[in-house]
Each structure stands twice: as C-alpha cells, then as structure tokens.
Amino acid sequence: MGHSLSTGTVVAIVGEGSEDALATLDGIRGVEVLSLQGSEPTLATRRIAAAGTPWIVHDADPLEHVAAAWVELFEERSTLGALEVEVETVLARFEAGSALMPDYYIVLEPQDAPDTWRHWWCGALGHHAPRRVLASPAPTTAQDAAIRHLLGKLPSSRAWPDPASWLPHLPFEIPDRVGLRD
Question: Which tens digit of pLDDT belongs to each residue from 92-121?
C-alpha cells in the first residue's frame, strides 16, 4: 500500500544518521524535508499530507514499533503477543488514515546494522516491495550528495501491497529465511 493522500512521492530515511541525511537535502527545490522522528504518528501524517511539493522526505517510520517487536521476537527478548499488538495497532492507524506508508524507504548503512535489524530492512520489509527499500551510505559531510543522487534515480516499481495482506504474517518471516521457499 502506498500512500493514499494527494501528496508527492514520500520517502522515509531510516537508520543511524537519518538527521544528518535530512540535512543534506535542505534547500533543494521541490523537496520538503521534515524531521518527524519521535513525533506522534497522527501529527507526522498530517505534516506529510500538508506538504505541497513533489518530494516529501522525512525520518518517521510508521512501522518502527512493528519492526522493534519483530526484532525483539526473533532475538528472544519479547513475545509473539507483543508483535501481534503492534501489528494490530499500526493496521488500525493505516485504516483510520492516521499513519502513512512511505512510497520508499532509504535505509542508511544496513550492512552495519545488527543482524536481526538487517534482516528486517532487507528481508521482512524489503521482501514485500524490494525496489522500494533502498540502501544508502550515511552522509559523511553536510554536502554529501549520496541521498540526493538516490532521490534522482528512484526505481519505479509496483506499489506496496496492502499492509493488511502481509503485516499479520510477520511472525512467519524468519530472519535468514525471508523470501526463500522450500
């Protein structure tokens, strides 16, 4: 499921250094940069929807609690019930329009993420729309152009499938096995 509002292309930058990555995009015509990390989801969604530019780039992940619950489940630090609650909560937010799935995720330095987190970004999430979860180096300077270049060549692909069709199945998306069929 992509976003359903009449906004431009919505890109979420996630990972260590997302604040620095957003800063490298300041001043680009047609790009609205929103620092929303830690914002209440409804407020973040309203700010994204209010943007009137062709590109909206932000650092708020509507799936952050689902991702953390998935990682904790497979690291044996949480229960299946915790993941199920997070999935139900985000699905209710999507349904109510108080959460918004970005068109693309740019994941900073996924190769440096702890194993289970790497499997979340590149497997459990990326498996459902592989060309919509993109890896990028984290910026090293304020003038670093890596994210700018990536924005300029985002691949076209099918939209995200409806989250209700795949989020409830996350407990079966096992790290190191996502996307593999026996």
Answer: 999 999 999 999 999 999 999 988 999 999
pLDDT digits (tens, 9 = 90+) for 12-42: 999 988 999 999 998 899 999 999 998 998 9
**Gap between the Cα atoms of 79 and 75, Å rounded:** 10
How many Å apart are CA 179 and CA 35, to the nearest integer? 33
Cα angle 108-111-116, degrees, rounded to a multiple of 5: 100
Q: Is the separation of the CB atoms in 96 and 3 below 8 Å?
A: no
Question: CA-to-CA distance for 86 and 152, rounded, in angstroms?
Answer: 34
The token pair at 33 is 């940069």
Beta pairing partners, 145: none
Strands 9-14 and 55-58: parallel
Task: Name the pTM for this structure.
Answer: 0.90
The 3 state secondary structure assigned to the chain is CCCCCCCCEEEEEECCCHHHHHHCCCCCCCEEEECCCCCCHHHHHHHHHHCCCCEEEECCCCCHHHHHHHHHHHCCCCCHHHHHHHHHHHHHHHHHCCCCCCCEEEEECHHHCCHHHHHHHHHHHHHHCHHHEEEECCCCCCCCCHHHHHHHCCCCCCCCCCHHHCHHHHHHCCCCCCCCCC
Phi, psi of 53 (to 5 degrees): -110, 165
